[in-house]
């Protein structure tokens, strides 16, 4: 069925001027972008977004990374887009992510305390609803 998913272009994607390349792949796949905004995430937004990771060893570095520069938040819509965007994004670790994916083609590991992997995509309908509410409360 038609779904919406929350995508974040993380600070490394914006810093490396990969916005266009990543958005091109989303559009070329046939998904529609129904909302889009660039801003610097607040600690409150990030605490809400990453609540499930609180207490993990990479939580503080993750929040510091995500607050370290502007991000682009967008909502993509389409048939099975939640699974489809995660397929486009590739695996969490960009060294291991398959070629052809956003992370596999554009990412690699850097000497950083957290894995920097260019994009986030919601992992379920429940997560998408919750995350869209955090980043686009008026949608
Ligand atoms: P993502 O899967 O979008 O959301 C959680 C993020 O935490 C993940 O991307 C990485 O940026 C980071 N992350 C997840 N697991 C690890 C890990 N084992 N070590 C370092 N960073 C991680």
TrEMBL record:
Gene3D superfamilies: Nucleoside diphosphate kinase-like domain. It is found in: Cytoplasm. Belongs to the NDK family. ATP binds at residues 10, 58, 86, 92, 103, 117. PANTHER family: NUCLEOSIDE DIPHOSPHATE KINASE. Its cofactor is Mg(2+). Residues 2-139 form the Nucleoside diphosphate kinase-like domain. Major role in the synthesis of nucleoside triphosphates other than ATP. The ATP gamma phosphate is transferred to the NDP beta phosphate via a ping-pong mechanism, using a phosphorylated active-site intermediate. This is Nucleoside diphosphate kinase. It comes from Helcobacillus massiliensis. Its EC number is 2.7.4.6. SUPFAM superfamilies: Nucleoside diphosphate kinase, NDK. It catalyses: a ribonucleoside 5'-diphosphate + ATP = a ribonucleoside 5'-triphosphate + ADP; a 2'-deoxyribonucleoside 5'-diphosphate + ATP = a 2'-deoxyribonucleoside 5'-triphosphate + ADP. Homotetramer. GO terms for biological process: CTP biosynthetic process; GTP biosynthetic process; UTP biosynthetic process. GO terms for molecular function: ATP binding; metal ion binding; nucleoside diphosphate kinase activity. It comes from the Bacteria.
